[in-house]
Amino acid sequence: MSSLKTLSVFSFLLSVALHCPSVHAATFDITNRCPYTVWAAAVPSGGGRQLNNGETWTINSAPGTTQARIWARTNCQFDGAGRGSCQTGDCNGLLACQGYGSAPNTLAEYAIGQFANQDFIDISNIDGFNVPMEFSSASAGCSRVIKCTADIVGQCPNELKVPGGCNGPCPMLKTEEHCCNSGQCGPTALSKYFKDRCPDAYSYPKDDPTSLFTCPTGTNYKVIFCP
């Protein structure tokens, strides 16, 4: 009897394998074109590593991955055990990040294999800006290119200036007006500073209509620092 049950389960699994298309992990090529070294970070997939000018780091992210981020850290010092600190984007003093980085950091955000077989991608300045970024499709099935390359640090409002970057209004000021914890908020003069310079990037938490984009699941991507 048990052998019949085993055969039945095997037949079912074989049928599923034959009739359901396979879904592959998305590949992200992360390239540093800045004239200086950055320490790339990626969670939950990847961790982190040093990227000198011209170097590329490739990571894979499985379907179902959500709340994922890729960013650059600057002015870092790490010891042989991978512990140290960064001026911007630091993730609890680890080379291989296990959690999000500290503001300010320009963010590439994504979710893979979501509703209707779509990926959701965006660039966010909600946590501020430290390095110019491009986040785009590397596959023929999607032509989306998102960029934020303005001189945000150089022109940063005085109340948001921090060493190495331009902080976001929420992490800097921590007010309901800027952080939108209630879910009811609109753009502010400070969020508009970012939006005017990078119109395709998130500038405040409810900025979805002009800042959240989709590609078909199965798309591969590239993230470029200083495109």
From TrEMBL:
Q: Which cystines does this chain contain?
A: 34-226, 76-86, 91-97, 148-198, 156-166, 170-179, 180-185
Q: Where is the signal peptide?
A: 1-25
Q: Return the PANTHER family for the record.
A: OS03G0233200 PROTEIN
Keyword list (alphabetical) reads: Disulfide bond, Signal
- Give the family from UniProt: Belongs to the thaumatin family.
Protein name according to UniProt: Thaumatin-like protein
Q: Which SUPFAM superfamilies match?
A: Osmotin, thaumatin-like protein (SSF49870)
* Highest taxon listed in the record's lineage: Eukaryota
Q: Which Pfam families match?
A: Thaumatin
Q: Which organism is it from?
A: Salix viminalis
